[in-house]
Amino acid sequence: MSKEHHGILWIAEAAPSVPVPDALRDEGIDVELAAQAIPALIPGRGCIVFDHPFSEAAEVAECSLRNPDVPIVVLEKAENRSLHAQYLRVGASVVLFDPLEPDVVAATVRALRRFRRPVGGSPLQAMAESCRDLLDAAPCFLTVQDRELRIVASNARFREAFGPGLGRFCHEAYKGLKDPCEDCPILKTFETGASHQVETVVTTRAGEEMNILVWTSPIRDDSGRVTHVMEMATDITRLRKLQDHVTSLGMMLGSMSHGVKGLLMSLDAGIYKVDSGLVRGDEGRLREGWGLVKGRIGHIRKMVLDILYYSKPRPLEPRMVDVREFLEELVLTAEPRAREQRVELALSVAGDCGEFEVDRHALFSALLNFLDNAVDACRMADREGEGRVVVKAERTGGIVSISIVDNGIGMDQATIDKMFSLFFSSKGVHGTGIGMYVADYIIGAHNGDIEVVSAPNRGTTCIIDLPAVFDGNPPGGEFDLPGDGPE
Questions:
Q1: How confident is the model over 452-481, as pLDDT tens digits?
Q2: Which domains does the chain possess?
Q3: Residue pair 486/360 in contact by the 8 Å Cβ criterion
Q4: Helices 360-381 and 323-340: angle between axes, nearest 10 degrees
Q5: pLDDT tens profile 204-235
Q6: Distance, CA of 460 to CA of 388 (rounded, Å)
């Protein structure tokens, strides 16, 4: 046997509980100390020692599974004597309890490091190894559980996603729960002897939520009694996200149908006025009809852009933009509709705003949504021509703050809390419920913040803080950017 197989791996959270490692080193035996069990999964050891308080059954089981021919010694506290049988069942060779005599521990380790457990010595053992390799290669999470819902076997993909499984309860490994899940399919299989299926959400060892589809299958003994249950789980997170997105698109298009119908009717009215103005030579009627057509075309364009922003993600493309010039164009674009609603639109930009690094098309669309909402709030308040919306901008250090202030109908706190939710609208048939959702989405992609201050009948102030220098797309911060946005 080579020297590497005589080495000892001693796993202790802090210092070893007995001065054995130094004594063994004095004899020329290689002893490596480790603070966690992961190094024990590397083969090529003569003996592995689990020193309390690090001797959990699941870690011992995992180590035994990965190192089937290496002896394992567990050093445990006296009050945990009830775990003796469990440690042996999951693969420990010897379990020693307090008080630990250094000479006894040293003699045990010396003897075991020269002993190697036989592996693959029979056709049956070779078949078992092949079956284990096959399960490890399966593209799903596999576990076998006993009647207490303890995991007695698991495959590589499960261990990679959820950590060592042996000896743990399934509800603990998947969800961190102390009690079994409601409507547990494994308990149903033990009760009925039939396979069951369920969809649920679990949490990986990295803290990520995952949607899984679970199937169970009974394992019976020679008498036909169900002794264990195999659980197979498939990750369907991406499928569910895609399904949710498609469903949302369908809901969005359905909710927008009434708005589109109203806009088309307004277009018909505008076209009629243009036609009659041309026939009669009435310049005033012609101008009125063309203004109506232009306004409705602007609404349709905005609606189409909102759909595009939501339906197809793509990274932002930021560039340096002059703040004053950008906001002047924004106000100029919103002015015809504000004039139509008899709302005054004003701009106030501090002299030191300079430039900021933004995606011009995306941010333009987002702020236009805020402006449209402000104009609508003034219309709904029926200010009789005294509605007013002011766009303000100032710069403080590396932050550009853009405020949109109106004297409109205002909102209560419940409406503020929901205003950025998909498909929520306080405008009834006049709203689609996607504009503010998209606006919030785009501001977030710029690593910006939104603060809303409002009260019923007291107007609304929306403050959008944006970094002057773009510092990268946040996770998930991708948006569709149509090629025909405002320049």
A1: 999 998 899 999 999 999 887 554 444 443
A2: 3-112 (3.40.50.2300), 123-235 (3.30.450.20), 310-467 (3.30.565.10)
A3: yes
A4: 30
A5: 888 888 889 999 999 887 788 888 898 999 88
A6: 11
